[in-house]
Write a structure and sequence with these properties.
230 residues; alpha+beta; two-stranded antiparallel ribbon; 8 strands; globular
């Protein structure tokens, strides 16, 4: 994958699944197969967020760093960015949001999924763990995906907490593309990219970048066809 594709600066690797939803061209057929299997099981599997550009991820990052967008702790409770030291604020953001240029959504292989038919009336999608956990309105979809998605090449990179990114049951990844992209996204690519961008917190980011790379980018659950998820 080209550097521009790895870092969300082009759409040349993408195909349109439906209006405003772009995914990697190589993931398109298998995702449609997964959708059809889900439909046969009684689910309306849809993507809430597919490809996300570098500029979009940068906007999210700068909005959180500046306090214009909600910042949450590990228990999904609001934090006050103005009262946090920069290092603490950095890692609070990284727990839920990727550093621009490193988001797996840049690759077009990773999606946030849900079932709009199971969303209660007038309820806005939150992408919170409670929605997908036992008793949540997406629990059945979540359980079905756990049992079936590996057969189509999909898995959850944030299935369990490994000390970096939060658990995200809504986030699925197409391994044939994502596995190779993660290998190609090297530390020097990130350094070079961010050195030319207006990203807030650049000094503390560069101080912490080797640790960020190990703990928040490379440190994910692995795809395992035989055991579903590990």
């Amino acid at each position: 994958m080209l550097v521009e594709q790895l870092t969300g600066q082009t759409q040349s690797h993408l195909s349109e699944l439906k209006e405003n939803i772009l995914i990697h061209s190589k993931a398109l057929a298998d995702f449609k197969r997964l959708q059809q299997a889900a439909k046969s099981a009684g689910f309306n599997l849809q993507i809430a967020s597919g490809f996300r550009s570098f500029d979009r991820q940068l906007l999210i990052w700068n909005s959180k760093f500046s306090g214009k967008r909600a910042l949450l702790d590990k228990n999904e409770r609001p934090l006050n960015p103005a009262k946090l030291p920069e290092r603490q604020k950095l890692y609070a953001i990284l727990h839920w949001s990727a550093l621009p240029g490193t988001s797996r959504h840049h690759w077009g292989s990773d999606f946030d999924i849900f079932d709009p038919d199971r969303l209660p009336d007038k309820q806005r999608l939150q992408l919170s763990c409670a929605e997908y956990a036992d008793g949540g309105y997406f629990q059945d979809l979540n359980d079905w995906l756990t049992e079936n998605m590996a057969a189509f090449g999909f898995y959850r990179p944030y299935h369990s907490f490994l000390g970096g990114v939060a658990v995200e049951p809504w986030h699925i990844s197409y391994y044939p593309v994502a596995g190779k992209a993660l290998e190609q996204l090297q530390l020097d690519i990130i350094y070079d990219l961010l050195s030319h961008k207006n990203i807030l917190g650049k000094t503390i980011i560069f101080q912490q970048l080797p640790h960020i790379y190990r703990q928040f980018i490379c440190n994910v659950n692995q795809y395992n066809m035989r055991n579903k998820e590990s």
